[in-house]
Amino acid sequence: MKIGIHKMSFYVPKFYLDINTLAHARGIDPLKYTNGLLTHKMSVAPFNQDIVTLAANATLNYLTKEDIKAIDLILFTTESGIDYSKSAATHLISILGLRNDVRALEMKQACYATTAALYFAKGHILQHPESKVLVIASDIAKYGLNSSGEPTQGAGAVSMIVSREPNIMVLEDQYGIHSEDIYDFWRPDGLDYAQVDGKFSNEMYKKFFLKTFDNYKMQTKHTLDDFAALTFHIPYPKIGLRSLELVADKANNPSLFENFYTSISYNKYIGNIYTGSLFLSIIALLEQGNLKAGERIGMFGYGSGAVAEFFSAKLVEGYKAHLNKELHEKQLSNRTELDMEKYAVYLTRKVTNDTVLEDDLDVKVQLKSITDYKRNYQNN
Ligand code: HMG
């Protein structure tokens, strides 16, 4: 049975900070960010957007009545959780009008969790071929003001439907996995901002990429020629480029480099969206690139702590017709730029209990209030 990604879309909040504004405010050469990290803008979430609303808005970009009838499993991946007990997935049952006999849960292993969710979704569909699985990655990435990770923040969600006979790509069966107990990036209980050992995290990312790619190649006997593109978890685009350079060179594999640059064309204007970053780059590659049906894409999922997986998928005939290119481009070009003062407010201030937020007709789903520590969402 062919199982894979049937629908995919993303949603980012309406605010962004230009990376040049940040560089000037911090007294840093802007080229360090634009050339050194290959990043240009970072999405910033307003108070009325949290991981649930980002996820709901991404899913509403494509959700149909037929999808709702078939979805019997929601896997919500995040590392910006809002409750220790109630999963963010349960909110989507009411917001999206999903079935009540749906399994709804939240999964965590830093940015890797979405790759694992696809694997579990595939296993579920093997047992229940008629079902569709909603896999949603949603995060708000914050390192804090004046931190070393500040230029690598972001916010957004990627929503996907996994099914048999998918319209976009078929997930292949082989994968390479590597896991180790390390502290490269972590956010302990009680801290609002991630802790990070930046240089070590970069070393680990590249080491895990080589290990999982080698493991995958050993099983499949594939070489670079078997891939139309290699895509990466993108905490910031430069690390993907540096990783690609470890296994390929521009002179011999020009198309892998061309496709890599296409794959980062959304990430560099959004920043790190943690669990969704790899899938955001796949959406960009498919929407902005020229890959053909039957071609293979390699994907590297990495989540600090750390677990990584290299896996692959093949594109389905007619996949372009099932993307949301215009909607995504419009969303990116309609955003509002923030100055440093407003950015600092949105980054540092939290929505607390007993707060009521104003109606925001710019968004379909918003956080409306928190009362008795219950979050109330509104479908505008
Ligand atoms: P840093 O110390 O500010 O920067 O940290 P740097 O000194 O390493 O320089 C960065 C690049 O800019 C280098 O390029 C410099 O040469 C260049 P490279 O040599 O690597 O190609 N540069 C310049 N280029 C042009 N003009 C200049 C200039 N100056 C320097 N004037 C770091 C950067 C990314 C470490 C920091 O921002 C950070 O800690 N970020 C957060 C951690 C992170 O993203 N780690 C990535 C791997 S871990 C991961 O992916 C998991 C994660 O997503 C979490 C999860 O799994 O949930 C984070």
**Strand-residue proportion:** 25-35%
- Low-confidence spans: none
Order of neighbouring strands in the sheet with most strands: 5-4-6-7-1-8-13-12-11
What is the annotated CATH architecture of the largest domain? 3-Layer(aba) Sandwich
Helical proportion? 25-40%
What's the CATH topology label of the largest domain?
A: Peroxisomal Thiolase, Chain A, domain 1
The unique ligands bound to this protein are: 3-hydroxy-3-methylglutaryl-coenzyme A
Largest sheet: 9 strands, mixed
Classify the secondary structure makeup into a structural class: alpha+beta
Write down the overall mean pLDDT.
Answer: 97
Calculate Rg over CA atoms.
Answer: 20 Å
Q: List the helices and strands in order.
A: EEHHEHHEHEHEEEEEHEHHHEEHEHEEE
Span between termini: 40 Å
